[in-house]
Amino acid sequence: MAKHAQLNNIDHAELRVRTGYGAALGDAAMWCPSFPHEFRNLQPYYPIVFSKDAATGGFRPLALFGLEDGENLFLGPSSDWGAEYIPLAIRMRPFLIGRSDNGAGGRQMEVHIDLDHPRVSETDGEALFLEHGGHSPYLQEVSKLLAEVHDGEQGIGRFSALLEELDLIEPFTLDVTLNDGSQGRLAGYYVIAEEVLYNLDQQALGRLQAAGYLQPVFMAVASLSQFRGLIDRRNKRLEDR
After folding, report:
1. Cis amide leading into 94 (omega within 30)
2. What is the Cα Rg of the chain in Å?
3. CB 33, CB 62: distance < 8 Å
4. Strand pairing class (16-17; 120-121)
5. Are 28 and 37 in contact (CB under 8 A)?
6. Model pTM score
7. What is the Cα–Cα distance from 139 to 131, expressed in whole angstroms?
8. Residues 109/147, Cβ–Cβ less than 8 Å
């Protein structure tokens, strides 16, 4: 169970964070959230799909790592990740973004940590604080990463709303047959509606461009070719058993 706390150099002076990737470090997940500004880096490796929030009705982009719950085909026997680009939402673990009153009627970002996350240790991993309490180089990099995630998160609602307004989201189903003859179906996700996209008028394309979303939309379309890569990875695992 998650145990979140605001990170500080008194209570957490001895904490370290295990790096590397693996199921034992909490990485056995089928997907992670993603952000439009990283779609260009994601698309050579991962299919980018969307999930629908039942509470808000909005859409959230995801990077897919597998074809079923709990499957991450980018994890191997070593602690490496099987792609050159690792999504921001994976790299930020076990840290979270907190917010507090800045005293001027606004909210400021804080670095929080999940103390129960398997990456957190007092014996091995990257130190968070220097001997006299300053931020370690590792924690400085984490702070920059969290700021990037925070900025990306602020635009998700606007991105989703514009896609819906332009009818650029449609349901998606993928039927898969593996080399051993087993079959499965990936359903419940959404993708960019390509036919609608290719028939947008100049005004609609201009709105996407002005908002900074035209490139991410095309990157999301291009990423769908990576389903072939996921299937190949699954077949390779079947062969290696």
Report:
1. yes
2. 20
3. yes
4. antiparallel
5. no
6. 0.93
7. 14
8. yes
For residues 157, 162, 168, 169, the Cα torsion angle rounded to the nearest 10 degrees is 20
Q: Could you give the angle at the alpha carbon of 32 between the alpha carbons of 53 and 48, nearest 5°? A: 80
Could you identify the residue written with the tokens 């062969």?
Answer: 239
Mean pLDDT per block of 10 residues along the chain (241 residues) reads 88 95 96 98 98 90 97 91 97 91 67 96 95 92 96 95 97 95 95 98 97 98 98 93 78
User: Do the beta carbons of residue 74 and residue 83 sit within 8 Å?
Assistant: yes
What tokens were used for 145? 């990463």
Dist. CA 62–CA 69, nearest whole Å: 14
* Per-position DSSP letters for the chain, written without gaps between them: ---EEE--TTTTTT-EE--S--GGGT---SEEE--GGGHHHHTTTS-EEEEE-TTT--EEEEEE--SSTT--TTB-SSS-BSSS---HHHHTTTEEEEEEE-SSSSEEEEEEEETTSTTEESSSSEESB-TTSPBPHHHHHHHHHHHHHHHHHHTHHHHHHHHHHTT-EEEEEEEEE-TTS-EEEEEEEEEE-HHHHHT--HHHHHHHHHHT-HHHHHHHHHHGGGHHHHHHHHHHHHHH-
Angle at 144 between CA 214 and CA 150, to 5 degrees: 50
Tell me the longest C-alpha to C-alpha distance in the chain.
62
